[in-house]
Amino acid sequence: MTYEKIFHDIYDDLKAVEDIGQVADYIPELANVNPDQFGVHLTTVDGQQFAFGDADERFSIQSIAKVPAFVMAYSWIKSEIWQRTDLEPAGTAFNSLVQLEHDRGIPRNPFINAGAIVVCDILVSVLASPKENMLSFIRRLSGNNSINYNPLVAHSEKKTGFRNYALVNLMKSFGNIKNDIDIVMDLYFNLCSIEMSCKELTQTFLFLANNGVVPYSGEQILSPSRTKRTNALMQTCGFYDEAGQFAFKVGLPGKSGVGGGIVAVLPEKYAIAVWSPRLNKKGNSYKGMLFLEEFTTKTKLSIF
Ligand code: GLN
């Protein structure tokens, strides 16, 4: 199948659709991105690659990085992770405080901000050098040693991250943050600042389409059962209060970030990433969602 031709056709169709989204400017550094960039990349589990547009341009992956962080914690501390975070869809915005008070500091899932902050706290407890260890883990997943944090983005978010500080303080008051808040948040903001291209994202996520095995190295990151569960979490929680829409319209487990990236996997087949910086009101890429909806419709391939 010529995926590149399909990419072209969908891109042409979407040109006619006005991009009503807005770039994320609550993190000042993210407002500097050229909003008209657009990239797509697909890598199959047997190594074929298909690219379109700005597929090699790096951007801030933001909340997409919550998945590798969770996977790292999940592979270390196994099922105790579920005493620190729940695994249900939140149905609220990614940075909402409302439910957290009611749930006594236990986040609804590891892919909302509160959940990812708890994951960072777990990693700070178990790793000798959390920032370095996290980065080398992500480099191992991607098979790419040049992937890095962007200190400007991390700093920009740290200075304006009042809501994230509110989340961590609330959880600390309930005893669900064990370490120093500043150390935990430094890891969280750096994690969100990681930059990758669409191509690098597909390579990083390919193990989730491959029963937990990184195809380039043969390394088993998660057991097939835990891989299935991670995909289930992406399906139910990867798009915050739009997870239902994404399942309904696209039908793939995936994860979005406020940098405008979305990555999704079709188990046994491929990982696909799309990048379009303007976001809809839920903080997900406006055209990225439309693109993936058309893609699974045209290819008739989804998990449903
Ligand atoms: N760094 C962002 C934040 O904490 C991540 C949010 C996202 O990508 N949805 O607000």
Write structural notes for this entry:
- The protein is an alpha+beta fold.
- It has a single domain (3-299), classed as DD-peptidase/beta-lactamase superfamily (Beta-lactamase).
- It contains 13 helices and seven strands.
- Strand 1 and strand 2 (49-53) form a beta hairpin.
- The longest helix is centred in the middle third of the chain and has 14 residues, at 113-126.
- The structure holds glutamine (GLN).
- Residues 62-63, 94-95, 113, 157, 164, 192, 257-258, 283 line the site of glutamine (GLN).
What's the gyration radius in Å? 18 Å
Total tally of structural domains: 1
Average pLDDT rating: 96
Q: Write the CATH architecture name.
A: 3-Layer(aba) Sandwich
Spatial sequence of strands, sheet with the most strands: 2-1-7-6-5
Principal-axis shape: globular
The parts where pLDDT drops under 50 for at least 5 residues are none
List the main descriptive attributes of the protein structure presented here:
two-stranded antiparallel ribbon, 13 helices, five-stranded antiparallel β-sheet, 304 residues, globular, 45% helix, binds glutamine, Beta-lactamase, 7 strands, alpha+beta
In short, what is this structure?
The protein is an alpha+beta fold and 304 residues long. The chain has helices at 3-15, 66-77, 81-84, 98-102, 113-126, 130-142, 151-160, 162-173, 181-192, 198-205, 224-237, 243-249, 286-299; strands at 39-44, 49-53, 59-60, 195-196, 254-256, 261-266, 270-275. The two termini are 20 Å apart.
